[in-house]
Every structure is written in structure tokens, then in C-alpha cells.
Fold each of these.
Amino acid sequence: MRSSFVTMAVVATSLMGFGCGKANGPELAPVLGTITLDGQPLPEMNIQFAPEATGGSPSFGGTNADGEYRLLFSQNRKGAVPGKHRVEITPRERKTDDSGNPIGQEPVKLPAKYRKPGALSAEVKPGANTIDFRLDSQPDPADAKKKR
């Protein structure tokens, strides 16, 4: 887990040094929202917005106990590039104690329909954005048709 934190820190630091023709990097729009499953907040989730058109750097966030998130583009910059994004929501890696034993509850496993590539998307507009994800645990009707 420590190595992935170090890797993320290195990536975030290196991203800060690269702009897209502007001194401070691309224009960003603030993005926040809530992730729920069957009306209940989803804590301890990671969320990533990856721009579709530009193929540029993604923005990341994580949910708190109330399922709320805010996106970061880099360590010092909040928000996401305006435009359409592929969205991925994944459970955070379960915390462990010094002996490697799991701490806390087992993370919520998202229904299969939300784990498919391209299942979730969002459009970030210039200015402030509130983008909520109201997920449900009902089976995907397309999956039911495939089984017939």
C-alpha cells in the first residue's frame, strides 16, 4: 500500500510540472458530489474522471463517511478538465494493522453493471459542478437478456 501511495505522489508531483500550453496547466472546473447505492452513502470509495476527448490527465477523489467527494487534478489543483469523462468508482483498499490484519468493515462491492468499462460517464461544464452518482443494486436488464 505504501508503494502505491509513493507512486501516486510521484505521478501527482510530475503532473504539476507539465502544463497544456498554460503556465499553470489546463483550465479546470470544480467538481463535487455524492455517491450512493440504493439511497445509502458509499464511504471509502475512490472515484476517477478520465477525459474522453483529450486523453489528458484524469482527476481523482475519494468519498467520506457521507459518500461525498471532491475531485483533485493534482496535489495543488482542485477540479477536472471541462468535457465528457469516463468515470470509474472503486472501493478503497482495505486498511490493515501492523500485523497485516484487516481493520474495519469489508468494502462494499459495486454491482457488476458499474464495474464494466464505460458504464459510468459525466460531463464537466465550466464553472462549479455537482455530479451525484445514485447507483442501485438491481441487475442490469441487458445482462438478463444475454442469459436467455
Amino acid sequence: MTSAHLSAQPTWLLARVHARSRAHLTAAFEPFGLRPLHYRAMSTLAENGGLSQAELGRLLGLDRKDVALAVDLLERDRLIRRTPDPEDARRKTVTLTAKGRRLMPQLDEALAAAQNALLSPLPARDRRVFVELLDRLNDGPAR
């Protein structure tokens, strides 16, 4: 059991909510054989089109090794494709495949279900306020 003092600290509360959030996301994507990181990569590709692995890593805030592991799994499952960049043969462009694009609506639904499960204790107005406050703590408007 946590002390009353610690339980009232925003950092402690955010860490606990983060752990619950990760559990909901992990459970949501597990039936697809994916992790939250894989959804983030696919969603980023769906939104931005083809990207180099380096660009994808920068957008996701990941190092090369983690991007390579995620891309390897997604390519193995034929959800993304790597092709040589016509301007630089050393670089690969990563894009969603037709199979990946068809899966995105199901993954989006799984994400929405995870969000609803996490925020279920809050009424709609409080959910909006909570997201606005989190956005402010993250230095700006959500994109």
C-alpha cells in the first residue's frame, strides 16, 4: 500500500494512469499480434505516406534499433513494405501495404475501445478537460 502523501502526488498519479493506459493498449492490440508501437508506426505511415526508417524513427521518437525491430515485424506480417529510395539506394522507404491499410480501421477501433476503457470513470466533459490538461502538460496543442 502506498503512503497517503505519495498517493496525492501528480507524478505518482500520472505514473499509475500510464501503467493502466499501457495495459489497455497492450490488450487492445494483442489480438492482432501487434503492440502499441506497431500501431503508432502504422498510423504515422497512414498519415504521412512513405517515409524513410530514419524519418519514421524521428517522428516516433525512437532509436534506429527499435524502429528496425518494429519495421521487421510489420514487414514480416506484410503490413508494411520497404522499397529502395530512388534518390538514395542506401535508404529504404517504408509504406503501408494494402493489407496494412485494410487493417487500420480495426486497429483504430481497438484504440478507441482502449481509450474508452481507460477513461470510463470520467463523464464526457471531464474526458475533454482531462485531454486538454494533458495536452497543456505536453507543451501544446495535440496534432
Amino acid sequence: MSIAFLRSLLKSAFGLFALEVLSLSGTAFADDPSAFLRSSVDEVLTIAYSGRGNESLPARVRPTLDKCFAFDLVTRQAIGPGWRQFSPADQKRVTELFAELVVRTYSARVVGTQKPKISYGSPANLSSDRCEIPTRVVPPAGGDPIAVVYRMIRLPVGWRIYDVLIEGVSFVSNYRAQFEELMQKGGEPLIIKTLQAKVAAPAAS
């Protein structure tokens, strides 16, 4: 992941909102990605800013995000061609580690007590089963809006996210660059070891 991308996340304090979408809240939204997105953003923002319970923020939002993201597809895309070198057991392990890293990384960017304002654009079809929905996020303390685009795929279980673009920068592409470097240096064992080290860091409360 590029330094510029990380700085952008830290500066915007946006973090989790790149992922705060798409919990399956009802069959009425099964064929409507826009309604699904809007409803799910509200649900996750409520969880993120409620401050209730003794669980950490990543632990509170993880069940919802598991229903939002096609983490298996996201992980395969982020790993790239090297995915085929993983055994089925290691594919399962790296998917779990990567999902945990994603949730922790963005949860750590949630600050303050006020929700941001989010506006939604019209979905654009990418194919018969894929679309992208542009949004603009306005920080509660003011500042420039942040452009966030959610790329979604329709699976048998409903719509899920498979990539997020923040100010035009693909989440998946950034991780792929990092994973490709790790694959060249040490293959799949190094990727797993690196992910294990990252998720071992203290989670946001």
C-alpha cells in the first residue's frame, strides 16, 4: 500500500467509511444495490459511533462487514496470480487474516463522535452482474469532501463489495502491489507471516 494512500486515510479520518457498507438487512434490497448500500451505511455508522459495549470497534463491526464484503473475492484479487500457489488451507487462512486486517485498518481511522455526511450518486453498470456507486463523504468537522466509489458484484446471496476506490485509488490495487513484492521475496509463507504480524497489533477500542 502506498504511503500517499495511507496518509490520505489518516488525514481524512475516513478509514472505516471505505468499508462501511452492505450488511444484508432484508430481501427488499437484494436486487437494488443503491438501497442496499444506503441502508447498510446507516447501520454500520450507528455501530461505529454508538460507543456501546465492551468489545473493540473491529469486533463490533466485523459481523456486519462479513455480510457486506466478498472477502474471498477481495483477497483473491489482492493476491493476484500468486493466489494459485496457496494450498486450499492457506487460501482460507490468508482470507481470514486479510479480512481482519481490513477491518482493523479502517476501524482505527474512526475518530470523533459525529457521523460524516454522505451523498450518493447513481450506480453505473460495469457488466451484467457488477456496478459501481459513487459517494461523497463530508467530514463532520468540515473540510473537502472525499470521493469514494464502491464496486459491487451480485452473488447468489446478494450484492457484495469487491473493491473500493478512494479519490480514484483502488483499495485492491494498492494491496496487490504490496503482496506482489512479498511473493517475490518469500512467497506465500511470507505473506501469511506478514499478515499475522499486522493483525497482532492492538485493535481500536
Amino acid sequence: MTKLFDYNLTGTGWAEVTLSDETQSVTFEVSYLSDPLSELYEGLYRLTQNQSDKEIIVFADEPGEHSLIIAKQDYLNLEIELYKNDEWEELSTAMTSTKGNKELIYSDKDTLQNFISKICDGTDNLLKRLTLSEYKKLWSQYDFPIEIYGKIRQPKLLT
């Protein structure tokens, strides 16, 4: 079960992400070439609304990327996998290929509710460190995904 999600802007156009459970932890860099926080919240929303059973969130780096795959096992349970790739893939390829040249660096099972809770906790901590205008200044091309974040934070979303 997911214990920690941390998303920290480390400089203009750069972030550091940490994902941990009881036995493993992985930390990696992300560049502004993608907007994974927005994509993560959009994907989680689609999962909660039964609009999809699998979401792939690409965290671009320079060079390479990490692909977070969140797949529903049933209504309440998820399988979570994080793959590292030293090269960029076209988004269409990333959406259809889960293995390829990727290296599995994190694997977990969780409930949808707990995973969303940990993602929101990490985002709450980010917002304690930065205002929305500071976020925009550091992340440069993208605003903080306030609208979808608000939808996910709704307490009755999973009931």
C-alpha cells in the first residue's frame, strides 16, 4: 500500500517525485516537458468515474522518462507500476506498450481510495510550500491543476 507521494519543485522547470510503500521507495526527476501532476489528477478522476480501467502518466526527464501505470483490478483495488526508460517514447506508444525498453522500478497494490489520499497528501504538502503563482513561476509552462485537484479532493468522490 502506498505510504508516500511527494512532488517537489526543485528549480525552474524541474521537479522531484518520490513514491513509497512499506518495502520500497523510488525518487526521480521530472522536467517541464510534460505536465504529470495534471495528467495524474485527470487519470485518477477518470478511474473514479469508471471512464477508464488503466491510466498511464508520463513523467518526462531529459533524457528519458518514467511511466506510471495505474490499473484497476476491480472497483476498489489498483495495481501500480512505475517504469523507467532512458529514451522518450511517443505518447501513443507509451499508451499501448507497458514493457518494451522500460525497466520496472516500482510495483505496488493499493486501494483506489488510499492511493488518491496519498497523492492528495503529497500535493497538499506541495501547496504548503508554494503559492499557486510560485508554482506557475517554477513550473513555467503549466499552471497548477486547481480545478481537477478540487474535484479529486471532494470527500464523496469514492462513495
